[in-house]
């Protein structure tokens, strides 16, 4: 136990090492005397803990909004609260589904066919329906997207308004002058902590939200986002952090609008908004982000502040994010290209709803559009479009 305690103490002291977090000759005490978000209360890394009660408040507000605002809007647009078709009750197949496998192989299908005197195709259809019946209705997905649209629209508007009057928005070198002795104003603090709280709420709500194929990928994405926001606050890279947040929020608004239009069957609006989303996503992630953000974090900061241990880690994480941007952009372009011959957006396969027969799959394929490439494109765009299709029958 003494060895474990000593190791834990060593790791804890290393975690809070000033030599890691800040340039030479800067201490935590220096920053605490520098003034914090309340204008003189002193900076403390522990200020990020305020995100937890705020995340709980956001989670509660979300459910109230979905119930009393989004749901009436969905009903007004004639979006039905109908889930996928339910499977025919069968005790034997239900036992296999719940205790053995949700996707039986050919050998097991043959055995079940002989046991039940059912055709193999009929058993396959039963398992498809059974896998689908626990999936949410279009109304539930509409409410979730409407909530996300509200948050992204509000936080992006607030962030852009705040940054418009901030000197580092117009001259990114201002992110590094007098670093790390830069005041964290109330406006900056509220923007940062609200974004952090939102992503914490997304992590928690993943366990109650629509279950999608990319659950693990999105959980890791949210965890990494929380880590980056927390990390940049603790070492006071908040100015450049606000620029990163604003860039990433811009395209999310358009994606949620496209999804809402799809659920409400406003196909032209859905298609047009998705095309606009593609343009904004690619411009912000492949253009503005590397030219504006990476340039200042890697080169301008090197000239003004110089490298130190957490500087290398921070830039490494931002470079990994850029690699993801390239990957996501590739699949978005691929999705849009394959849709040109199909005509419209129709399915978000993240919800993992399958057609109940080959005939239904053919019908679904005939309706595919801008978001409908092959299944191999699924789950690769990480929360922006992590899938290839949006189904009307999801």
From TrEMBL:
<dbReference type="GO" id="GO:0050291">
    <property type="term" value="F:sphingosine N-acyltransferase activity"/>
</dbReference>
<keyword id="KW-0472">Membrane</keyword>
<dbReference type="GO" id="GO:0046513">
    <property type="term" value="P:ceramide biosynthetic process"/>
</dbReference>
<keyword id="KW-0812">Transmembrane</keyword>
<dbReference type="InterPro" id="IPR009057">
    <property type="entry name" value="Homeodomain-like_sf"/>
</dbReference>
<dbReference type="Pfam" id="PF00046">
    <property type="entry name" value="Homeodomain"/>
</dbReference>
<keyword id="KW-0808">Transferase</keyword>
<dbReference type="InterPro" id="IPR001356">
    <property type="entry name" value="HD"/>
</dbReference>
<comment type="pathway">
    <text>Lipid metabolism; sphingolipid metabolism.</text>
</comment>
<dbReference type="GO" id="GO:0005634">
    <property type="term" value="C:nucleus"/>
</dbReference>
<feature type="compositionally biased region" description="Polar residues">
    <location>
        <begin position="373"/>
        <end position="394"/>
    </location>
</feature>
<comment type="pathway">
    <text>Sphingolipid metabolism.</text>
</comment>
<keyword id="KW-0371">Homeobox</keyword>
<keyword id="KW-0238">DNA-binding</keyword>
<feature type="domain" description="TLC">
    <location>
        <begin position="140"/>
        <end position="341"/>
    </location>
</feature>
<feature type="transmembrane region" description="Helical">
    <location>
        <begin position="149"/>
        <end position="169"/>
    </location>
</feature>
<dbReference type="GO" id="GO:0003677">
    <property type="term" value="F:DNA binding"/>
</dbReference>
<keyword id="KW-0256">Endoplasmic reticulum</keyword>
<feature type="transmembrane region" description="Helical">
    <location>
        <begin position="312"/>
        <end position="337"/>
    </location>
</feature>
<feature type="DNA-binding region" description="Homeobox">
    <location>
        <begin position="95"/>
        <end position="138"/>
    </location>
</feature>
<keyword id="KW-0443">Lipid metabolism</keyword>
<feature type="transmembrane region" description="Helical">
    <location>
        <begin position="41"/>
        <end position="61"/>
    </location>
</feature>
<feature type="domain" description="Homeobox">
    <location>
        <begin position="93"/>
        <end position="137"/>
    </location>
</feature>
<keyword id="KW-1133">Transmembrane helix</keyword>
<keyword id="KW-0539">Nucleus</keyword>
<feature type="transmembrane region" description="Helical">
    <location>
        <begin position="189"/>
        <end position="208"/>
    </location>
</feature>
<protein>
    <recommendedName>
        <fullName>Ceramide synthase 5</fullName>
    </recommendedName>
</protein>
<dbReference type="InterPro" id="IPR016439">
    <property type="entry name" value="Lag1/Lac1-like"/>
</dbReference>
<dbReference type="InterPro" id="IPR006634">
    <property type="entry name" value="TLC-dom"/>
</dbReference>
<dbReference type="GO" id="GO:0005789">
    <property type="term" value="C:endoplasmic reticulum membrane"/>
</dbReference>
<dbReference type="Pfam" id="PF03798">
    <property type="entry name" value="TRAM_LAG1_CLN8"/>
</dbReference>
<keyword id="KW-0444">Lipid biosynthesis</keyword>
<feature type="region of interest" description="Disordered">
    <location>
        <begin position="347"/>
        <end position="394"/>
    </location>
</feature>
<feature type="transmembrane region" description="Helical">
    <location>
        <begin position="273"/>
        <end position="292"/>
    </location>
</feature>
